[in-house]
Amino acid sequence: MRLRSLRVFALLLLAALGVAACGTRARGDGAATVAGRFVAAVSGHDGANACRLLTEQARESVSGDTDVSCANAVLNVQERGTALGNVEVWGDAAQVRIGTDVIFLVHLHEGWFVSAAGCTPRPGAPYKCEVDG
Amino acid sequence: MTTSRLGRFCRDNGLSLAFLLLLVLALVGQAVSGVAEFNHQQIIDGAQQLSLAQYVTSSSFAVDVAENWQSEYLQFALYILATIWLVQRGSSESKKLEDVGTQSDEEQKVGRYATPSSPAWARAGGWRAALYGRSLGTVMAIFFLLSLTAQSIAGQAAYNVDLLHQHEDPVGWVGYATSADFWNRTLQNWQSEFLAVASMAAFAIYLRQRGSPESKLVGAPHDATAQDP
């Protein structure tokens, strides 16, 4: 391969990595924003708004087998602080730490939604979450 | 390029062209079947489905491609290097038993033993002949390492997506490169490559394929190793 071709290839690779890095950061900001809005809604006792930020499966998990609506049940999620911590985004999934809480999100057509919140780590096993969809 | 020149080019390069075409067809098939399986799992997980274009640029597709590529390049790199020193009596895949090792410059037509039609770096002798004389194994080994690295990077991304969907912490690159997922993917490919090489070396002693350079002549005795008369 000629030197010019190698330079073009290297530039294309750097451009692709740059675009990928920017894309990941933008997606991380989006996930952190939605997680922050969820925590704010729960701590502000705005259950309806909090439920709108949940995935369908997570909404169903909040009420469980009870007749309690999602908007009421979601307010039972324990508040654990509001300071934004580490954000991890991989593909269509994200993990956002807020205070001592760990929140998991998935990216759907309409944007980011919370799939799990109020999570506590378990050694060698998935987190145990109060909201777990 | 005229029709006759194109036809001659295709005939002269039929082996490479045919397998490149098969590669493309197999990749298309892998992409189409892969996106169907991937989206089925996404539905189960309540996650977003991907288009074919999104899938072929995803870490999931990349790791599946890279894990197979690295094992194929490992197979050829090892075979090229192992057959310098290891022989198989009676196999067309082996050189003659007395030729074990890298052989002399005279036998390899290097430096002052080169012919006018020898490659320039083989005629040059010295470091250039030494480097050129190891270029096939070196390039295969480099492609193996690049594919293995690509597998580890894409695999980490795909693995972390799964972990986050299962509400588990993602892992770093070192964590993934030492994980059961990485080594299970890797070793299940390696074992099949080693089996294929061992089978070929042994079957070629007793079995024949008329017209194939991978086989001895049909009438050659079983104990005749590849280049024996």
* Rg of chain A, Å, rounded: 19 Å
The main pleated sheet of chain A reads as: 5 strands, antiparallel
Span between N and C termini of chain B?
41 Å
Report the biggest beta sheet of chain B as strand number plus sense, adding barrel if it closes.
none
- Beta-strand residue percentage of chain A: 25-35%
Going by helix content, strand content and strand pairing, the class of chain B is mainly alpha
Helix content of chain B: 55-70%
Strand content of chain B: under 5%
SSE pattern of chain B: HHHHHHHHHH
Q: What string, H for helix and E for strand, traces the elements of chain A in order? A: HHHHEEEEE
**Number of helical stretches of at least 4 residues of chain A:** 4
- Model regions low in confidence, pLDDT < 50 over at least 5 residues of chain A: none
Written description of the protein model:
The complex is a heterodimer of chains A (133) and B (229). With 133 residues, chain A is α+β, with helices and mostly antiparallel strands. Chain A has a single domain (2-132), classed as Roll (Nuclear Transport Factor 2, Chain: A). Helices cover 44% and strands 31% of the residues of chain A. Chain A has four helices and five strands, in the order ααααβββββ. The longest helix of chain A has 41 residues, at 3-43. Chain B is 67% helix and 0% strand. Chain B contains ten helices and no strands. Chain B has helices at residues 3-12, 14-45, 52-56, 59-85, 105-108, 120-124, 126-132, 135-165, 173-177, 180-206. In chain B, helix 4 (59-85) packs antiparallel against helix 8 and helix 4 crosses helix 10 (180-206). Chain B starts with a helix and ends in a 23-residue tail after the last helix. The A-B interface holds A 55-57, 88, 90-95, 104, 106-109, 115-116, 119, 121, 125-127, 129, 132-133 and B 45-48, 58-59, 157-158, 160-161, 163-170.
